[in-house]
């Protein structure tokens, strides 16, 4: 099964690169040139409103197509980039590329009402971090309220002060903030109090077993109720089955993202996907 193969591949990668220092050194070396050699690209994974299956946004995910190794998962090279000061360059590339591609295809605003970017702690570490984001977003042809930054407690929120400096500046322009992998960090609730958050994304590890595991199911229901009480949008990630979708719908989850609806795809596929969306709707 595809998922098992994917997970195994990731495990192999993680152990290979995690334990093999020389391999990691080579990968780091290669990553430095990947940016200049056009080996990085972005893909888009649509998110949907559960009640009418309309596209509510897309999440932008980076891809590295290594000339010899093939596709290297971001779970492998993003931590490497974070550890060695390369993440800002990657963030620049991802934001510039996605804004340019989506604008050229005229998908922003009308067809894709929200674009979410994953960001890391180092993106907030510099005194000029707010200006960096402002400069990147100046490329937008219209208002900035289509932009969302996804923060995780294990990365970006390591530097709460830096995040706050950036968010204070961007929030005035309409930029939204999402807590990614919600529930897996150490202080989800205190984070909600200390930042202007607009959305929580329930981590896929909680979604995976909701139809078999009563405790996971109750936990997810509780997160959704909490989000509603705090007026936060809630997105479930990693939705793979109709049964999971049905449970989430009953629990009042507003938005979903997962292989059941759409996999991450390059721009050209996204263009045909949105064209066919009305016929695609019939499938769900
Ligand atoms: P994430 O932000 O939590 O992204 C969701 C991950 O789940 C993506 O993996 C996506 O392809 C995958 N996914 C989506 N739907 C399903 C599903 O139904 N089932 C399963 N099993 N998986 C699903 P991906 O693209 O490999 O990215 C992994 C992580 O790498 C991301 O987790 C994010 O933390 C990080 N990442 C990806 N792109 C970027 C980036 O541009 N910048 C930064 N800083 N981090 C990134
Ligand atoms: Mg994310
Ligand atoms: Mg996530
Ligand atoms: Mg994640």
UniProtKB/TrEMBL annotation:
Origin superkingdom: Bacteria
Q: Does the keyword Transmembrane helix apply?
A: yes
Domain EAL, residue spans: 24-278
Q: Which UniProt keywords apply?
A: Membrane, Transmembrane, Transmembrane helix
Coiled-coil ranges (or none): none
Query: Is Metal-binding one of the keywords UniProt gives this record?
Result: no
User: What's a single GO MF annotation on this record?
Assistant: cyclic-guanylate-specific phosphodiesterase activity
Name of the protein this chain belongs to? GGDEF-domain containing protein
Taxonomy of origin reads:
Bacteria, Pseudomonadati, Pseudomonadota, Gammaproteobacteria, Alteromonadales
Whole-protein coverage range = 222 to 505 of 505
């Amino acid at each position: 099964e595809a998922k098992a193969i994917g997970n195994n591949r990731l495990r192999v990668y993680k152990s290979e690169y995690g334990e093999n220092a020389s391999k990691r050194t080579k990968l780091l070396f290669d990553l430095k040139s990947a940016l200049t050699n056009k080996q990085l690209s972005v893909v888009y994974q649509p998110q949907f409103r559960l009640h009418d299956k309309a596209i509510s946004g897309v999440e932008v995910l980076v891809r590295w197509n290594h000339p010899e190794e093939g596709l290297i998962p971001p779970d492998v090279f993003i931590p490497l980039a974070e550890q060695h000061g390369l993440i800002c360059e990657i963030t620049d590339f991802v934001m510039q590329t996605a804004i340019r591609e989506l604008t050229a295809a005229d998908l922003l605003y009308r067809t894709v009402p929200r674009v979410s970017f994953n960001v890391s702690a180092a993106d907030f570490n510099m005194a000029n971090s707010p200006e960096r984001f402002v400069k990147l977003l100046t490329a937008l042809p219209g208002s900035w309220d289509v932009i969302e930054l996804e923060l995780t407690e294990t990365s970006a929120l390591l530097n709460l002060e830096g995040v706050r400096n950036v968010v204070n500046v961007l929030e005035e322009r309409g930029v939204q903030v999402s807590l990614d992998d919600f529930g897996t960090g150490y202080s989800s609730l205190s984070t909600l109090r200390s930042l202007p958050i607009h959305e929580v994304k329930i981590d896929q590890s909680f979604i995976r077993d909701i139809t078999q595991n009563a405790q996971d199911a109750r936990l997810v229901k509780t997160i959704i109720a909490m989000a509603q009480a705090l007026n936060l949008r809630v997105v479930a990630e990693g939705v793979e089955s109709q049964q999971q979708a049905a449970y989430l719908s009953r629990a009042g989850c507003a938005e979903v993202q997962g292989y059941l609806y759409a996999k991450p795809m390059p721009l050209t596929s996204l263009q045909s996907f949105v064209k066919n969306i009305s016929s695609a709707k019939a499938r769900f």
